[in-house]
Amino acid sequence: xxxxxxxxxIVISVLLIILVLLQFGKGxxxxxxxxxxxxxxxxxxxxxxxxxxxxxxxxxxxxxGNSILLAKIQSTKSSSSLLDGEAPIAAPLNNDAMIPTTQExxxxxxxxxxxxx
Length: 117
Description:
Blueprint: H1 2-22, H2 45-77, H3 112-116
């Protein structure tokens, strides 16, 4: 079922892309499917825009519904993450922590006056 829904999703995506590209904006003089002004065109410009708009809306709703359904199926399929078995890696935040120190720091020696007391 998951694979058939994925194929359906791909078909919806391609059709949605094609429908959006076929439409023309409000400022454009003519779109790809404007009819060319011929008398034998079936739809006028306003009718064509309404039909393409309705088809785009239907395909967009199908696309969103199918996306939600696919996400729900995928989330129930696997309940664990790929990173669950990995051990956390502790790394220094800067380069200074990686430089080894060669000098040992000693506590200051007490003066002779303090040792006499």
